Amino acid sequence: MDQLPESSPPNYKPSTHIAELSASAPIEDILSVIDRDGGVILNSLVSSEELKSIEKELEKYVKGDRDDDEGFFKGLVPQETILIGGLVGKSDTLAKICEDKVLEELRREILTDHGTRRVEKYDLPYHIDPLLSVSLSFRIQYGAVRQRLHRDDGTHLIEHESKPYQLNNAAQLGCLIAGVETTQANGATMFIPGSHLWDDKREPRLDEVTFAGSSLLSDLCYSIATNVPDQKKR
């Protein structure tokens, strides 16, 4: 990926939007929107006090260089973006948020695998609980170009076929939390509602994206947008 991705026109106006629900909405309603659109904005999931606490807890881990990046991040995340990994081990506040009731319910409904194990003449009920694989902070600095649109489950080499979609077969569930006000200009998440239903032959287009702050994602196409000069960090 030697060439920079194409930028969205500065006057681009999305023709679609992301559905919004309260974090206290019935879990069935949240699951229904994620199943339909691939993601949902959950309002009031995190308080302003919690965001300030996370920022304070992470201050000492912020650094400007990316010398120790692995190849995946060097190829996908712009060098102007500061990464902080292992957040649940660095922020008690964030670790607590990960145990929020609505997130626990969503993980259980979407990611828990159920089946049976054969144990000498008996089939025993069995389940596999989901694991937290990544807790990562993106600090998008001035001038950072957007990411290429992608699905995060590509890290698991998941193939998307032309067959009916089942939410409980999703390989992962991501939760993005906006720590500051995010806009199209300063690097808000680019998101294509419904792209979780596509097979791998379907290429995403820039004229299909909309922009989000805090949202829950499954395996849809998304990326981080460009942070143009004179905008706040995101």
Continuous helix count = 5
Q: Can you give the mean pLDDT?
A: 82
**Helix percentage:** 10-25%
Annotation, overall tally of beta strands:
11
Instruction: Give the topology string: H per helix, E per strand.
Output: EHEHHEHHEEEEEEEE
Biggest sheet record: 4 strands, mixed
What oligomeric arrangement do these chains adopt? single chain
What portion of residues belong to β-strands? Answer: 15-25%
Q: Give the helix/strand class.
A: alpha+beta
Describe the structure.
The chain is an alpha+beta fold. It contains five helices and eleven strands, in the order E-H-E-H-H-E-H-H-E-E-E-E-E-E-E-E. The chain has helices spanning 27-37, 48-58, 71-76, 92-98, 101-111, and strands at residues 20-22, 39-43, 81-85, 113-119, 122-128, 136-140, 174-176, 189-191, 210-212, 215-217, 222-224. The strands form four sheets. A four-stranded mixed β-sheet has the order 1-2-10-7. A three-stranded antiparallel β-sheet has the order 9-8-11, with no helix packed on it. Strand 4 (113-119) and strand 5 (122-128) form a beta hairpin. The relative contact order is 0.22.
Would you summarize the structure shown here?
This protein has 234 residues and is an alpha+beta fold.
